[in-house]
Design a protein that fits this description.
This protein is of the alpha/beta class. It is built from 15 helices and twelve strands. The protein has a seven-stranded mixed sheet with strand order 1-7-6-5-4-2-3, with helices on both faces. Helix 4 (95-104) packs parallel to helix 5. It is globular, with a radius of gyration of 22 Å.
Length: 402
């Protein structure tokens, strides 16, 4: 059988791991094995007529300016779309640029947004503080009960926005149930899927319309570059979202796109080991006398364990720890760690711990923090690639110092 007839020429026949190594690759005449890096800002045209037709959109697949189209960014977008099962994708300079443009591109003055109240601080700012400046109102609800979304929907609701598991308390939102509620009202559902990753949760398959990621996290996963991506249908991504990207200039740089595409090659291996270690840590720490609670989606102690098992294939790499003794005890634990670093990033090769009350959620009022479970003693732990025995020993030593 010739290579041309090989069934694996069809991307749909390839596994996710294979797609993340080969997907979207366009080799130059040099037949390089590693993806080419196109650092150019612009492109020349063989004729004026060609340029005219290109700007009219009559020449598909061509590029006219790297602010909104670049061959290296194309590789990253295509590779992510294959993993996500999406028709289209657009890369952004950061995860917050991806979230902000995803939300803003779908609403107009006079519209309304419903969102889960448990959100990353920056995402909550977009919905609660930023959008009202442009005449778009919002309602925040307890996302653990889908009925709360149904009760908050209004005739002018155009977007429902959730993250699940939530940052930092690892609450879950029933994606399928909320998608049905949004669609019944004629609204779209946007899901921030950073914590679960595209490996362990597929929001589009559960009814979501757009999915957002901070690619800085597990996709790069090695603390090197910033990036974001939004995925969904061609209608939504190539329509208003692309226009917003083009006009706001929140563009992903070709170099960062190249790093992110290379990161995707090893993401399944990295996230699998992180998740293996997270599961071990949750088991060891559960019931520790100096912890009020250990929160991990796939641990039986999680209050939404059944939902986690239904919509996430694994629990991923994040754990939340509520330390007895409040902020002072949480600081004492963090400050005594030798391997785990204090940092507000996550999804990194290095294990990272942060105190959300004083970092990622510091801008919220104390009332708002407590409402979503960000207690003085809460720590968010992003499990990295270190030996799990070392991580266990580090945390048990830290707990002994309280």
């Amino acid at each position: 059988m010739s290579k041309a007839n090989n069934p694996l020429n069809d991307p749909g026949r390839r596994s996710a791991e294979t797609q993340l190594v080969h997907g979207g690759t366009h080799r130059t005449e040099f037949n390089e094995t590693s993806e080419a890096l196109f650092l150019n800002s612009g492109y020349s045209y063989p004729s004026s007529d060609h340029a005219e037709r290109l700007f009219k959109g009559e020449i598909p697949g061509a590029h006219n300016y790297s602010r909104f189209a670049n061959p290296t960014v194309d590789v990253f977008q295509t590779r992510m779309a294959l993993l996500e099962g999406a028709e289209a994708a657009r890369g952004f300079a950061t995860g917050m640029a991806a979230v902000t443009d995803a939300v803003m591109s779908q609403v107009r003055a006079g519209d309304h947004i419903v969102a889960s109240r448990a959100l990353f601080g920056g995402c909550r700012f977009v919905v609660e503080d930023f959008m009202p400046r442009f005449g778009v109102s919002s309602t925040l609800v307890d996302g653990r009960d889908p009925a709360n979304f149904a009760a908050a929907m209004q005739p002018n609701t155009k977007v429902v926005f959730i993250e699940t598991p939530t940052n930092p308390t690892l609450e879950l939102v029933d994606i399928q149930a909320v998608a049905d509620i949004a669609h019944a009202q004629g609204a779209i559902l946007i899901v921030d899927n950073v914590f679960a990753t595209a490996l362990y949760q597929k929001p589009l398959q559960l009814g979501a319309d757009l999915v957002t990621y901070s690619a800085t996290k597990h996709i790069d996963g090695q603390g090197r570059v910033l990036g974001g991506i939004v995925l969904g249908s061609k209608k939504l991504v190539e329509g208003d979202l692309h226009t917003f990207l083009r006009q706001t200039g929140a563009s992903l740089s070709p170099f960062n796109a190249w790093v992110l595409a290379k990161g995707l090659e090893t993401m399944p291996l990295r996230v699998r080991q992180m998740t293996d270690s997270a599961e071990k840590l949750a088991d060891v720490l559960a019931g520790h006398p100096k912890l009020n609670q250990v929160i991990y989606p796939h641990h039986p102690s999680h209050p939404q364990y059944e939902l986690a098992r239904r919509q996430m294939t694994r629990g991923s790499s994040l754990i939340a720890l509520d330390v007895r003794g409040g902020q002072e005890a949480a600081f004492a634990l963090s400050d005594s760690l030798a391997v785990i670093l204090i940092s507000n990033n996550l999804g990194d090769a290095k294990s990272l711990i942060t105190h959300p009350r004083t970092t990622t959620h510091a801008r919220l009022s104390e009332e708002a923090r407590l409402e979503v479970g960000v207690t003085p003693g809460l720590l968010r732990l992003s499990v990295g690639l270190e030996a799990s025995d070392d991580l266990i020993a580090d945390l048990l030593y830290g707990l002994d110092q309280i």
